[in-house]
Amino acid sequence: MGGTGLFQTLGRIAATRRNSLLCAVVLALGCATRLYHIGSMPYWLDEVTTVHRSSLSFGAMVHDSLVAHHLPSYFWIASLSGAYGLGESVLRLPSAIFGGATAAMLYIIGMRAGGWKAGLVAGLLMALSPLQVQYGQEARSYTFVMLMMAMGLWGLVEIARDPRAATLPFRSPGARLFPWVIYTLGTLGALQVLSTAFFWLISANVAAIAVGLDPAVDRRRFWWRWGIAQAIILGLTLPWFMAMAVATRGNMGSGTDWVPAMTLHSFTSTLGSLYFMRISRLISFHLFPVVVPGFGALLLAFGLLGVVYLRRAGGQRRLASVAPTMLYALLAVAIVPPLLILLISIGKPLWMPRYLLWSAVPFFVFVGLGVAVLPGRWLPLSTVTAIALLASVNLVPYYQSETKPRWDLASRDLVNILEPGDMILVPDRGPITIMNFFLARDGQSIPDDLWTRDIFKAAVHVQDGGRVWVVEGKVGQADHTPPKSYNAILAPLGSPIAVLPEGDLITFKLFDRSPDESLIAQGDAAPRL
């Protein structure tokens, strides 16, 4: 008995050291993939908002956040980073760290659900996912809220893993307070960052039903503790949203009015980047060519394998720590958020990668569980190695992809090619705002009298012998003027004599010959830009 106890103790120590080492490796890898080339792409419109808000006083920052339907917590953290400079690398640093920490958190969740191999696969996928890396290089709050929700999921997994211990009196032997604290703090933290965390809160409450029905649970005590946790979370969260309602004058629903209507393309593109590890362009629904054919399908197969094996008794013998309660809880948090967003998007568009980013977390856990239940010793290990290598190869082209519009280069090139008397025509103020942001770094700007949105003013300028530069390109994720409509509006200018691309997403068109006078004669009856 003494020898057996010694071996058990040594085994626990070895497992603890192994888990600590692997968690540290995943953390380092997650941070490294996000810090590498973190400043290679310029800010885009949303990030410029972060730059502006981080420069405000605390009170002004809180007010500006609430008016814009945002919570101020992330912007306060960004302001601390911004004290060391407002360049891309510095201001994006918190997001990179939060993203790396989320990968480490996934290792912990997967390990607790199905062993170290499940945790390693889940953590590696989070560390190497192109979409997750891209948001980790974004001066926005999405990786922060993901870290907090992952923390909440960790607590929920611990509760579902041993519901009896989670509902014992706290002074009893084997009772566990820790899962309740972690769940509450994580969920509360998420709701202090982004309102989309309410989807996590809803899914967690659905998962709680599965836990509450577990035959080993003390149902009265479970629901009492669960109710206290929800009361703490909502009690400390709702005041912020009441303040937001006041700041927006009750117009709370307008914060997502910019989201484009869901199409088949946007639907499949989002799924491709979220679950199938496709490299995408953050500012649009564009998917870059497949890097590793079949890799996404392989992950989906392992994810389904994880579900199937957890459902069957054989799978539960291999993963003794996982009860049916765990399966139902994980399924709830995996399915409920995307399903709710999909249903809402039928009436009010909300289907965007940024709002679905969290859904990858439980999916990666299921993939890890699918690998962990493979038979034998070497097959799971070789599969973990293969997934790590394929994910690494799949990520490499991301760093050479133009994932954001190069308004930094466009602004510099435009002022260099402008001649005295030239006019700039834009569809809205967005291109001027973003170009002036970058020009301000060199003490330059595009003055208001140099640009216009009036197509007929531009046409008259060309007819009088002047030159007009039309600037086309995406500034944000919403297309105010679709390309086809844009080209139709430009008809009074005639045909451009030069078309100059600025990367993949921005184009300059030069007009300097007499336009179609019959179109000019229509005057204000035709549309304006």
TrEMBL record:
MF (Gene Ontology): pentosyltransferase activity
Any single GO CC term annotated in Swiss-Prot or TrEMBL for this entry: plasma membrane
Record domain Glycosyltransferase RgtA/B/C/D-like: where: 70-165
Keyword Ribosomal protein: no
Keyword Oxidoreductase: no
Gene Ontology BP annotations: lipopolysaccharide biosynthetic process; response to iron(III) ion
The organism's place on the tree of life at top rank: Bacteria
Listed InterPro entries: LipidA_mod_glycosyltrf_83, RgtA/B/C-like
Pfam family, one: PMT_2
Location in the cell: Cell membrane
Keyword set, alphabetical order: Cell membrane, Glycosyltransferase, Membrane, Transferase, Transmembrane, Transmembrane helix
Transmembrane segments: 21-45, 93-110, 142-160, 180-202, 223-246, 258-276, 288-310, 322-343, 355-374, 380-399
Membrane topology term: Multi-pass membrane protein
PANTHER family found in the cross-reference section: MANNOSYLTRANSFERASE YKCB-RELATED, UNDECAPRENYL PHOSPHATE-ALPHA-4-AMINO-4-DEOXY-L-ARABINOSE ARABINOSYL TRANSFERASE
Name the record gives this protein: Glycosyltransferase family 39 protein
Organism annotation: Acidisoma silvae
